[in-house]
Design a protein that fits this description.
alpha/beta; Rossmann fold; 3 domains; six-stranded mixed beta sheet; four-stranded antiparallel beta sheet; 11 helices; 28% strand; binds adenosine-5'-triphosphate
Length: 306
């Protein structure tokens, strides 16, 4: 099994009467990309701040790369990269000067800056003042700052906010490179749909507590949500399949499109029946529950359970 990089064991963090994190445990491993999802105020930023050592737990243990991140030891912090939710830079400095400033703080060779700026797509804007940058460009400068020194653990708080679709794609390309390089990447986000296929594992928190943790496949198995099967029947058969569709429970979406929600045990039977002569199928889509639907399910289950 791959080495553990972050350990959160029975951690609670209270601010007076507000319990921001309540008895959360989780381990993150090298080469793993984890999506941390939860509503506003669920505790995502607090959990990230605990991992960074910016705040200490009220009880429980946090270890990052085998050290207490709040110990103040420089070596521990140097191997951590962090992109805060709201990046703010000195607007009078250029992109290159900004990175140089952070590189000195992190004691990273200044020679790596030019490559990093190109990597995040800021090569041409490197010598312009940050004050002239768009929001997306500032976000990318923040990402470059987080990547300084090839950190082993990257904590990115809502990293794709303000990025257009093309930049989001190139952001996820960078995350994939980091993953293959063995880094642990934790991404907190509200943009659930965009995380599908990007994260190896999803951790859901709600009002400070962890309510789900697993790969998308594992969460789908636990949730047992139906899979949507959608099929398009051939033009000439649209009328003919009416009766079959009605009696076997398929909904008609439009003239040739039929849809059904299949429980995990019914999928194969429904697919067989759809492939029969009664329904001349021109095309077929099997749509598993989305991360959005799983998220709603786990939150709902918690509400239901009190
Ligand atoms: P968002 O998606 O809105 O950024 P979040 O999941 O990151 O939310 P946190 O910022 O971790 O949520 O906040 C969790 C809870 O802890 C909230 O109720 C918040 O008000 C509270 N909280 C966080 N920091 C403090 C603080 N310094 N003092 C008091 N309460 C705090």
């Amino acid at each position: 099994m791959r080495a553990e990089t972050v350990l959160v064991a029975g951690v609670t963090k209270s601010y007076g009467r507000v319990c921001a994190i309540s008895d959360v445990s989780c381990e993150l491993r090298e080469g793993e990309t984890i999506a941390l999802v939860g509503h506003n105020g669920a505790g995502k930023t607090t959990l990230i701040k605990l991992m960074l050592g910016l705040i200490r737990p009220t009880s429980g243990t946090v270890k990052v790369l085998d050290e207490d991140p709040a110990s103040g030891r420089f070596e521990a912090r140097q191997r951590l990269g962090y992109l805060p939710e709201n990046v703010s830079f000195n607007l009078a400095l250029t992109g290159r000067e900004t990175l140089a400033f952070y590189a000195r703080l992190k004691r990273v060779p200044l020679a790596s800056i030019a490559t990093l700026l190109v990597r995040v797509g800021l090569g041409e804007a490197a010598d312009r003042r940050v004050g002239t940058y768009s929001k997306g460009m500032r976000q990318r400068l923040g990402l470059a700052q987080a990547l300084l020194g090839r950190p082993r653990v990257l904590l990115l708080d809502e990293p794709t906010t303000g990025l257009d679709p093309a930049l989001r794609r190139s952001f996820y390309d960078i995350v994939a490179e980091l993953r293959s390089d063995g880094a642990t990447v934790l991404l907190s986000s509200h943009a659930l749909t965009e995380l599908e296929g990007k994260a190896d594992r999803v951790v859901i928190i709600d009002r400070g507590a962890k309510i789900a943790d697993g790969t998308l496949e594992e969460l789908r198995r636990i949730a047992q949500l139906p899979t949507r099967i959608r099929l398009r029947v051939t033009e000439d058969a649209a009328d003919r399949v009416n009766e079959w569709a009605r009696t076997s429970g398929w909904r008609r979406v439009d003239g040739h499109l039929l849809e059904i929600d299949a429980g995990p045990d019914e999928k194969i039977r429904l697919l067989r029946s759809a492939a029969s002569a009664d329904a001349p199928v021109a095309d077929l889509d099997v749509i598993p529950p989305t991360l959005d639907e799983l998220y709603a399910h786990f939150l709902g289950a918690r509400e239901g359970g009190g």
